[in-house]
Design a protein that fits this description.
single chain; 9 helices; two-stranded antiparallel ribbon; globular; alpha/beta; 2 domains; Rossmann fold
């Protein structure tokens, strides 16, 4: 299910934060890795005080050095430089993913105004996740090379079955890393509803409150079924239903449980609408250093 990992790099040390993560995943999942650099049209000469890779030969040498430095001989690693300058880096990543590499996972870091600008906070990561239909792992960059060990995964779900598509991939990771799972469903209160739901809550508070109570009961039954399945698979798992602002509750839970990875199912359209049409994944990503895995939902 995760049989090939793609890591786009722009040559900066911050982008290299993705490398130890990819190495850990490749080693544990026994998956080959492809390093990719896309030559950006009209690229700046520097990116975060590092020379920006604008020359194909230089980029190829850099990727080869990064591969040798990061991955053991037991991990199959390849690299590729897209030599024709492009203005749309996200589109190029998606096209390479679909036509050439066909990865099961893309590992991206966030930083600056380069060919991969705004990865963590939205645009390119959303475009790649939505357009390619490939899971995207977002890593917040660090000056220090972090270790990547998954001991505890947090999986926000809705109260029915809209996000259950992520669970097979969750199970693969849980078994491979021998990790604990925590499922969480956050049911809004009247005061934390947004958009159409907020308007309905103001006009019909009693009806809306009853609807939210029913949603909570549905979530309990729904989650119990998942817990039974994980128990059969011998995966330690817990589940909780909470009330409040989804992003705030997820962040609080992740901190308290010392979570190593948060996995979101995301709809394939701009805005990453999920959980009562709020951009919960993006809101959480902006406020945490915890890696976030976005798994595109079908339908």
């Amino acid at each position: 299910m995760f049989k090939h990992i793609l890591v786009p790099l722009d040559g900066s040390h911050l982008a290299e934060t993705a490398l130890p993560v990819a190495a850990s995943l490749a080693r544990t999942l026994k998956a080959p890795v492809t390093l990719l650099h896309v030559i950006e049209q009209d690229a700046p000469s520097e990116v975060h005080s590092d020379s920006h890779l604008t020359n194909a030969a230089e980029a190829g040498a850099y990727l080869a050095e990064a591969a040798g430095r990061t991955f053991t001989k037991r991990i199959k690693v390849d690299w590729h430089v897209h030599t024709a300058p492009v203005a749309d880096v996200a589109r190029s990543i998606v096209d390479h993913s679909a036509d050439e590499f066909q990865p099961d996972l893309i590992v991206l870091t966030s930083h600056g105004n380069s060919g991969m600008h705004d990865l963590f906070f939205g645009t390119i990561a959303q475009q790649v996740a939505a357009a390619s239909g490939t899971p995207v792992l977002l890593i917040k960059p660090s000056e220090n090379t972090p270790s990547f060990v998954i001991r505890h995964i947090l999986v926000p779900l809705d109260n029915e079955s809209g996000h259950d598509q992520v669970l097979p991939k969750v199970e693969v990771l849980a078994k491979a890393f021998r990790t604990e799972l925590n499922l969480i469903c956050v049911i809004p209160t009247l005061g934390t509803l947004s958009g159409i739901q907020a308007a309905a809550g103001q006009m019909m508070p009693t009806t809306t409150s009853a609807y939210l109570d029913i949603a909570e009961e549905n979530a309990r039954d729904h989650f119990q079924a998942h817990l039974d399945e994980f128990q059969k698979a011998k995966i330690p798992a817990t589940a909780e239903i909470a009330r409040g602002d989804p992003a705030a509750v997820i962040l609080k839970t992740a901190r308290e449980r010392h979570v190593d990875l948060i996995i979101f199912g995301t709809h394939g359209h701009a805005g990453m609408e999920a959980f009562w049409n709020r951009s919960v994944a993006a809101a959480v990503a902006r406020q945490t250093d915890i890696p976030i895995l976005l798994i595109p939902l079908i339908g």
